[in-house]
Amino acid sequence: MDRPREFVFDIPVNPGIATRGNADGPPARPRDAATVILLRDGAAGLEVFLQHRVKGMPFAGGMTVFPGGGVDPRDTDASVSWAGPPPSWWAGQFTCDDSLARALVCGAVRETFEESGVLLAGTGDGVVEDVSPYRDARKALEGKEVSLAGFLADAGLTLRADLLLPWAHWVTPEQEPRRYDTRFFAAKLPEGQRADGATSEADAAGWQLPRDAIADAREGRRMLMPPTWLMLSELEAFTTADEALASSREIVRTIPTLVRDGDHIRVVLDSSEA
C-alpha cells in the first residue's frame, strides 16, 4: 500500500512531541520496542483497540496509542515455547538478527497481554479463550517479577507467532529526547477473549472505527502520534480484520522529520526512509 510522502496534523501543535534539550548534541539512541494493532469485526466495520495513555507518562503521555512498549532483555530467551514463523522469518521481515526478532515477537505478545489482557498463546492448535486463570501472571509480568518464557512454561502454553502479522517499522524522530525503534504488528482478537484497559499506563481504552479515532484527533478530543494516525488511515481501507491481515505489506524502516508550521505539524517521510 502506497503511503503519503507528507501529511499534516490539522490540530494545535502537539504537546506530546517534545524537543531534545541538547539539540546540538547527538540524538538519543532508540530503544527497541514492539506494538500490536489489535483488530476485530464490529457491527459497523473493522475496529481497532486503542488506549489513552496517562498524561504523566515520560513518553507519549496523554496520547492515544496501540498497546505496546519496550523490549525486555528476557524477551530474548530462546527457551520460550513457540509456534508459527520462526525468529529467522521475522528477522527477514524486520531486517534484524534472529535474537532481536525473537525478542520483538515475545515483547509484542507480552506487552499485549500486560496492557490489554489479550493473550496470543495456546496449546496444540488451539488458542486460549479464557484468560482469567492467568490474572495473577499478568500482574507479575507487568511488575517484571516473571519473564514471558517462564510464565508460558509454568502455564503449559505456547506463544502463537502465527497470530501476528508484521505491519510497519518506525523510529522516533531525532528531535525527541526519548526514542524508540518500534516494530508494529497486527493481530485479530482471539475468539472468546476480550480486551480491557486494566493497565497502570492508560486511563481509558476501547474499540473504535479507524475513521472515528481520526475524527477525535482532528476535532481535538484525543491526540495521536504520527505513525498511529497514518496506520489508522491505512486501516480505513479494510472492512474486516481478515481482509486487513491478508493484505500485502512492505516493511520500510521510517524515521519521520517533524516540521512545525504555525499551529500545524507537518510530518515528512521522504528523506527519512532507509
UniProtKB/TrEMBL annotation:
Keywords: Hydrolase, Magnesium, Manganese, Metal-binding. The keyword Metal-binding applies. PROSITE patterns: NUDIX. SUPFAM superfamilies: Nudix. Residues 30-195 form the Nudix hydrolase domain. It comes from the Bacteria. Its cofactor is Mg(2+); Mn(2+). GO terms for molecular function: hydrolase activity, acting on acid anhydrides, in phosphorus-containing anhydrides; metal ion binding. This is Nudix hydrolase domain-containing protein.
